[in-house]
Amino acid sequence: MGAYILRRLLLIIPTLLGIMIINFTLVQFVPGGPIEQIIAQVEGQGDVFEGFAGGGGEVASGGGGSDEYAGARGLPPDFIAELEKEFGFDKPPLERFFTMLWNYMRLDFGESYFRSISVIDLVLEKMPVSISLGLWSTLIAYVISIPLGIRKAVKDGTSFDTWTSGAIIVAYAIPGFLFAILLLVLFAGGSYWQIFPLRGLTSDNWEALSWPMKIADYFWHIALPVLASTIAAFATLTLLTKNSFLDEIKKHYVITARAKGLTERRVLYGHVFRNAMLIVIAGFPAVFIGVFFSGSLIIETIFSLDGLGRLGFEAAVARDYPVIFGTLFIFGLIGLVVGIISDLTYVLVDPRIDFEKREG
Fold first, then answer.
1. Is the domain of 187 the same as that of 59?
2. How many domains, in total, are found in the chain?
3. Where does the record place the ABC transmembrane type-1 domain (predicted)?
4. Rounded-to-integer distance, Cα 217 and Cα 202, Å
5. Which of 154, 300, 319, 158 has its CA nearest to residue 228?
6. Looking at residue 170, which CATH number applies to its domain?
7. How many other CB atoms sit within 10 Å of the CB of residue 182?
């Protein structure tokens, strides 16, 4: 197992390199870079011309601006040259790319173009919101899905299985953003009840609250976003649990256990549970990352949560390349590490699994 883990860890390096090469190359062809963003602001606000020409800026990576685009707007060439120097776009793309890689090897992700803060500090500042959303959504999905999936497997073919399957299919078919908007309309003062807050993770007076009130306030704010992001994962996990249990119930060792006179509960939870739950429990890290990455952008935007998803979206719109590349690098690293953790979880749940023999 040690050799397998070592190979997976070594594979992280070329994978991250490939991710950065592809994204860096794509950025070179995206119009409207950070220089164009500043030029647009300068043309719209002539009195800030001097501020942009003399301001300091430090670049970590990214694509360059277009001289033809800038010249068409009639701005002085000296001003454009000063901007390019400040952002580092006066250097060839290949040199910028290798500089970025060297900085990333030292965990130096640079500073945001438009915020006076380093990328790593910005990510650490936003990460608790996304982790809260992803962790609670995953935990609630497991707490609901596992008992429901087991019940559906035991009651397979009955009316309970039929109507719960219908409800699950409907839940899975509803887009997460549409369900989030529905929750806002119904319970956040949209048109009906003002039960939950409309935005944010805590109240404005959170610091002045007692510890019990802080906990209550936190869950009060997180309730609707978590519910909106849980619905799709809940449906998938329930059906996965049911099918996993159905496969195990039909195996010979279950028939033998029943023939020995064991109670149905003992057979189900003493013999079937461990084997059936292998794929469900071991998949927990992957499910969490799926919720963490895929649902964070839409849910955070709708509920005005200042997390990583919203940060990435705003950085892409503003062409804040250090933030874009830094978050991509960190997200890619987290995803690869979680893949290794998932494999280790499989072995922990069932020691009979040997990835080294399978590779051989």
1. no
2. 2
3. 127-342
4. 6
5. 300
6. 1.10.3720.10
7. 13
As a whole number of Å, the CA-based R_g of the chain is 26
What domain range is 290 assigned to? 120-318
Query: Residue 169, exposed/middle/buried by CB under 10 A (0-12, 13-18, 19+)?
Result: exposed
Among 344, 351, 339, 224, residue whose Cα is nearest residue 290: 339
Share of the chain above pLDDT 90, in %: 0
**Cα separation, 152 vs 100, whole angstroms:** 52
**Per-residue pLDDT tens digits for 171-204:** 888 877 788 888 888 887 767 787 888 777 778 7
Residue with tokens 């438009």, as numbered in its chain = 114
Give me the mean pLDDT over the 343-355 stretch.
Answer: 70
pLDDT of 337 above 50: yes
The tokens 């309309």 sit on which residue? Answer: 185
Residue, of 181 and 282, whose pLDDT is higher: 181
pLDDT of residue 354 exceeding 70: no
User: Does the residue 325 lie in any domain?
Assistant: no
Terminal C-alpha separation, the chain:
12
- Number of Cβ within 10 Å of residue 276's Cβ equals 24
The rounded Cα 357 to chain-centroid distance in angstroms is: 32
pLDDT, position 74: 56
- 279: nearest Cα among 244, 246, 253, 249: 244
* Closest to 63 measured CA to CA, from 94, 42, 40, 39: 94
